[in-house]
Write a structure and sequence with these properties.
The complex is a heterodimer of chains A (300) and B (286). Chain A has 300 residues and is mainly alpha-helical. Chain A has 2 domains: 40 residues, no CATH class; 197 residues, Orthogonal Bundle (MetI-like fold), CATH 1.10.3720. Chain A is built from 15 helices and 2 strands. Chain A has a two-stranded antiparallel ribbon with strand order 1-2. In chain A, strand 1 and strand 2 form a beta hairpin. The longest helix of chain A is centred in the N-terminal third of the chain and has 32 residues. The radius of gyration of chain A is 25 Å and the shape is globular. With 286 residues, chain B is an all-alpha fold. Helix content of chain B is 70%, strand content 0%. Chain B is built from 14 helices and no strands. In chain B, helix 3 packs antiparallel against helix 10 and helix 10 runs antiparallel to helix 13. Chain B is flat. The two termini of chain B are 27 Å apart. The chains are: A mainly alpha (300), B mainly alpha (286). Chains A and B meet through helix 2, helix 4, helix 5, helix 6 and helix 9 of A and helix 1, helix 3, helix 4, helix 5 and helix 9 of B.
Chain lengths: 300, 286
C-alpha cells in the first residue's frame, strides 16, 4: 500500500499531465475549431449541394463537375506554368545572391539582406497597386518605357492574354527574395572551412568548389525552399485576383483564384470544397515526389 | 581560405572583383526596391486624373494633397488604420502568450499523447488554406454569426501552428537540468514558466511578435471575406476598395499604398535584427 503510494507520487513528479494539458489547451481548442473541424467539414461540403438552410447530398457530383470543367484544367495548367516559371528561377536568384554576398563583411551582408527583404514587409495589396501602374499599358508606363528603350513595341502587359501571365511572373522575379537569401546564407556559413582548404590543396577552382562542395551541402536547404516554394505557389491567388482578376480570357486564372470565385462570387461552396481537396491532393503528391527523388541522400 | 580565393597577386585584382560583385548586388537591389521607391515618390504628386500624364522618377514637388484625397475618400479611412492596429495587436498578444505556453509544453513537459498531438499539428501545416477557407467562412459567418466583428477578424488567428513550432524549436535548446532542478526544489510548472522560461525566451517572443504583427497587418484575404461595411474594414481591404473606386487617380492610390506599408517599414527598420533572425529560427535544418 505504502509502496504504491510513493510510486504514484514519483510518477506525478515526473509527469506534468495536468499542467501540460492546461498549457496547450487554448492552442488545441483553436486548432480543433479553426483547422481540424473545417478540414473534416470540407470533405462533407464537397459531397453536398451547399445551401445555408438544408444542403442536399449529391455524392461525387462536385468532383465530376470539376474534372469535366475545362476551366478547372486550364487553371491547373496556369498554376503549373506559373510555378515552373517562378519557383526554380527564384531559388536560383536567391542562391546566386547568397553566394555573391558571402565574401563581404558582416555589416555589408546585413545591409544587403535588409534591402532584399524589404519588399516582403510591404503589404501584398500595396505592391499589387504599385505594379499595376508599372504595367500601365500606355506608352508612358514604366515597363513600356523600358521595353521601348530597347527598341521593342509597347505592350498591353496585363490586358493581353499573351503577356498577362508573364507580367505576373516578372513581378514574382523582382519581388522579395530576402527570406530565401537569408536561409541560404545561414546554410553557407555552416560549411566548414576545412572542406575548402582541402579542395584548394588539390587545386580546385572557384567553380569546382561551388559544384563539389557548396551545391551538395546546400541540397537540404534547396529541397526545403523547393517544397515550400511549390506549396506556396500552388495556392497563389492574391496577385491574380488584385491585378488581372484571372483575365484576360482566363489566361491568369489560377486554381486558388478559381476556388475563391466559385466560393465567394458564385457561392458554389460544394464545388469550391471539392476543388480545394483536389488541390490539396496535388500538393501532397508533388511534395511526396520531391522528397522521394530529391531527398534520397539527405539525412535529417 | 574559404569559398573565394583571396590570394590575389595585386590588391587591384581583389578590388576589381569585389567592385564587380557589389555593382551586381546593387543593381539587383535597385530592381527589387524600385517599386517601393516609385510608390513613395509618386505619392507626393498632385491628385489629378492620370490620363496622359508621364511618370517621373525624380520628385519635382512635394505635396500632401494626394494623402488628403485618400483620407477624404471615405469617412472611415482613419478607422481602417485603427482596425488594422486593433486586430494585429490582439492577434500578436494572443499568439505570444498561447504559442509560448504550447511551445514550452511540447518541448519540455511530459504528458500523455504529446508526440502524437504535435505530429498532428505539424502535419496540418501541409494543408493548403483553400481547404479550410470555405468551412471556416461558414463557421464564422453562418454558425457563429460573427460577420463584421472584431472576434471574426481575430479568432481564426488566435494562435498559429507555425508559431508553436517556432517556439518549440527554440525551447528545445534550453537545457533540461535547470527545469529538473527547479522541479526538485518544488517549483510548480506555472512558476517555472514565469520565472525561468519566459525570461529566457524573450528573443523568440520578440521574433514571434514581430512576424505575427506583420502578417496580421498585411493580411488581406480574411478581413476582406468577413467584413462588409467600411467602418469594420482594415487598411488593406480599404486600399483595395479605394483602388477599384478610383482607377484613374494615380498619386492618391500611391498615397494609399504608402499609408498601408509605411507602418511596417518603420517597424522593420527599428527592429531589423529580429526580422532577419526570425527567418532562420523556423527553417534551420530543412
Amino acid at each position: 500500500m505504502n509502496q504504491t503510494l510513493t510510486k504514484r507520487r514519483k510518477l506525478r513528479l515526473e509527469s506534468d499531465s495536468g499542467w501540460g494539458y492546461a498549457f496547450i489547451a487554448v492552442a488545441l481548442i483553436a486548432f480543433c475549431l479553426f483547422t481540424a473541424y473545417p478540414v473534416i467539414n470540407a470533405f462533407m461540403i464537397s459531397l453536398q449541394e451547399y445551401r445555408p438552410l438544408g444542403s442536399t447530398y449529391v455524392g461525387l457530383e462536385n468532383f465530376k463537375n470539376s474534372f469535366t470543367d475545362e476551366l478547372f484544367w486550364k487553371a491547373i495548367k496556369n498554376t503549373a506554368v506559373y510555378t515552373l516559371l517562378t519557383v526554380p528561377i527564384n531559388i536560383l536568384i536567391s542562391f546566386l545572391i547568397a553566394i555573391l554576398i558571402i565574401p563581404f563583411k558582416k555589416r555589408t551582408q546585413t545591409v544587403f539582406k535588409a534591402i532584399y527583404y524589404l519588399p516582403a514587409v510591404a503589404s501584398g495589396v500595396a505592391m499589387a497597386v504599385v505594379w499595376l501602374w508599372i504595367f500601365d499599358p500606355l506608352k508612358s508606363g514604366i515597363a513600356n518605357q523600358i521595353v521601348m528603350f530597347f527598341g521593342m513595341e509597347n505592350q498591353n502587359w496585363l490586358g493581353s492574354s499573351a503577356t498577362a501571365m508573364f507580367s505576373l511572373v516578372l513581378m514574382s522575379w523582382l519581388s522579395s527574395h530576402g527570406t530565401a537569401i537569408i536561409i541560404y546564407l545561414a546554410a553557407l556559413l555552416g560549411i566548414d572551412n576545412s572542406y575548402y582548404e582541402a579542395a584548394e590543396i588539390d587545386g580546385a577552382t572557384f567553380l569546382q568548389k561551388l559544384w563539389f562542395i557548396v551545391i551538395p551541402f546546400l541540397k537540404p536547404t534547396t529541397l526545403f525552399l523547393l517544397v515550400t516554394g511549390i506549396i506556396g505557389s500552388f495556392q497563389v491567388f492574391q496577385n491574380a485576383y488584385l491585378m488581372t482578376g484571372g483575365g484576360p480570357d482566363h489566361a491568369t486564372t489560377m486554381v486558388g483564384l478559381l476556388i475563391f470565385n466559385n466560393a465567394f462570387t458564385y457561392f458554389e461552396f460544394g464545388e469550391a470544397a471539392a476543388q480545394s481537396l483536389v488541390l490539396a491532393a496535388i500538393i501532397a503528391i508533388v511534395s511526396f515526389i520531391q522528397f522521394k527523388f530529391l531527398g534520397k541522400d539527405i539525412e535529417y | 581560405m574559404a569559398l573565394y580565393n583571396n590570394n590575389f597577386k595585386s590588391k587591384w585584382a581583389l578590388f576589381v572583383r569585389n567592385g564587380l560583385i557589389i555593382a551586381f548586388l546593387v543593381l539587383f537591389a535597385l530592381a527589387t526596391i524600385f517599386p517601393i521607391y516609385f510608390m513613395l515618390i509618386s505619392s507626393f504628386g498632385d491628385p489629378v486624373e492620370a490620363g496622359a500624364m508621364s511618370y517621373s522618377l525624380i520628385p519635382n514637388k512635394i505635396s500632401f494633397e494626394s494623402y488628403k484625397f485618400f483620407f477624404n475618400f471615405s469617412p472611415y479611412s482613419w478607422d481602417w488604420l485603427l482596425n488594422s492596429l486593433i486586430v494585429a495587436a490582439c492577434i500578436t498578444v494572443s499568439n505570444v502568450i498561447f504559442a509560448t505556453l504550447a511551445g514550452y509544453a511540447f518541448a519540455k513537459m511530459k504528458f500523455k499523447g504529446k508526440n502524437i498531438l504535435f505530429a498532428i499539428l505539424l502535419g496540418s501545416m501541409m494543408i493548403p488554406g483553400q481547404v479550410t477557407q470555405v468551412p471556416l467562412y461558414i463557421l464564422i459567418v453562418n454558425i457563429f454569426e460573427l460577420q463584421n466583428t472584431y472576434p471574426a477578424l481575430i479568432m481564426p488567428s488566435i494562435v498559429t501552428v507555425y508559431n508553436i513550432f517556432l517556439v518549440k524549436q527554440f525551447m528545445s535548446s534550453i537545457p533540461g537540468e535547470i527545469l529538473e532542478a527547479a522541479k526538485i526544489e518544488g517549483c510548480s510548472q506555472p512558476k517555472i514558466f514565469w520565472h525561468i522560461i519566459a525570461p529566457l525566451s524573450k528573443t523568440v517572443m520578440a521574433v514571434l511578435a514581430i512576424l505575427t504583427f506583420m502578417a496580421a497587418w498585411n493580411d488581406f484575404f480574411w478581413p476582406f471575406l468577413v467584413t462588409n461595411t467600411m467602418d469594420m474594414q482594415t487598411i488593406q481591404v480599404g486600399l483595395k476598395n479605394f483602388r477599384f473606386a478610383n482607377t484613374t487617380y494615380f498619386a492618391p492610390m500611391m498615397a494609399g499604398a504608402t499609408i498601408s506599408a509605411v507602418p511596417m517599414f518603420i517597424l522593420f527598420f527599428s527592429l531589423q535584427k529580429y526580422f532577419l533572425e526570425g527567418v532562420t529560427v523556423g527553417a534551420v535544418k530543412g
